[in-house]
Design goal:
Layout (H helix, E strand, L loop, with lengths): L9 H12 L8 H4 L3 H10 L4 H20 L8 H13 L4 H14 L3 H9 L3 H10 L4 H16 L6 H5 L1 H11 L4 H16 L8 H14 L4 H17 L1 H8 L6 H11 L4 H14 L3 H9 L2 H11 L4
């Protein structure tokens, strides 16, 4: 009430945020802090030029969201809060250090389907792409932005197809730049999978996208989630085009089938990986020429192994 009575006075808002922050470590205060997110973001929007207030507000929101996730509480922030966060992104789009924190906040917010949809509605996708282009070398920003893109594309109702299509070159550039960084590559693979699911690729995209995903699998073979999401992304590409299936078979760096075998044996105890590999192979055998090649590479032996390993799945 103290903050709401004096929106225009920056010092009141700053003191209010500082006082709310003092309750963060008190577990009994958590349910009340949950109700303060709109007040905090409105204060940030009202005093958008004050970087100090933006930083303190962002830190407090991160603390609240972290506690919410730890306690299994999903915070579905409304459209007004999403709009306030977008204003902050636009005002401070060149401040790399602050954006790194803000993009982490957006990633946590977008874990909620409702919040992700609200971020999409206020038009945040072009801003995310601009940030990625500007700070392509910043692994923390790339990780967070790709995770947000994944959430937005998965909840997409196809209203922003053209906007999403423009995300493909940027997401590919992120994966290319951070191929050896497993955490970022995993996030970028997930984003590429979402874009493929939404049909955001053209004929000329299938081969390079497949080659890039295979590179990510080769560079990070030990990361089960990356392998799973990378294979699901490849399956989505193959479903759309035989070109992608042929790209997997004829990749210049080695047979994609041999890579699939290696990944399966590396993650023998991971049913999610086995399922993604089976889905990919199932899409590939839809093409006669590809199926003949797979047969010559003894893929049936691998399938029998998987069937024996997971007889009840």
């Amino acid at each position: 009430e103290f903050m709401q009575a004096s929106w225009d006075i920056e010092e009141v808002q700053a003191k209010g945020i500082q006082h709310l922050a003092s309750f963060v470590k008190d577990k009994s205060a958590f349910p009340y802090l949950l109700t303060c997110t709109e007040v905090i973001t409105h204060a940030m929007k009202t005093h958008i030029d004050s970087l100090d207030l933006q930083v303190e507000g962002c830190i407090l929101l991160l603390e609240i969201l972290t506690q919410a996730l730890e306690q299994g509480v999903m915070m579905a922030l409304d459209e007004r809060v999403a709009s306030c966060l977008l204003h902050t992104v636009r005002k401070h789009s060149e401040n790399e250090e602050f954006l790194s924190m803000l993009c982490t906040l957006l990633m946590m917010v977008s874990a909620s389907e409702v919040a992700a949809e609200n971020l999409r509605k206020v038009g945040i996708i072009p801003d995310l792409l601009l940030i990625l282009r500007r700070f392509l070398r910043n692994d923390k920003i790339c990780f967070s932005c790709c995770a947000v893109l994944w959430s937005l594309a998965v909840s997409e109702n196809n209203a922003d197809q053209a906007v999403l299509a423009s995300a493909l070159p940027v997401t590919s550039a992120v994966l290319q730049e951070h191929l050896r960084n497993g955490v970022v590559a995993e996030s970028a693979c997930s984003a590429l999978w979402a874009l493929a699911l939404q049909g955001c690729l053209t004929d000329s995209d299938y081969e390079p996208a497949a080659a890039l995903l295979l590179d990510a699998l080769r560079m990070n073979p030990e990361r089960a989630v990356l392998v799973k999401n990378g294979c699901l992304a490849l399956a989505s590409l193959v479903r759309l085009s035989e070109t992608a299936a042929l790209a997997i078979l004829l990749d210049s760096k080695g047979s994609g089938i041999e890579l699939i075998k290696d990944e399966y044996h590396l993650h023998l105890g991971e049913p999610g990986v086995a399922e993604a590999l089976c889905l990919l192979m199932n899409e590939m055998v839809q093409y006669d020429e590809v199926m003949l090649d797979m047969r010559s590479q003894k893929t049936d032996k691998l399938l029998c192994e998987i069937k024996l390993q997971f007889p009840f799945s």
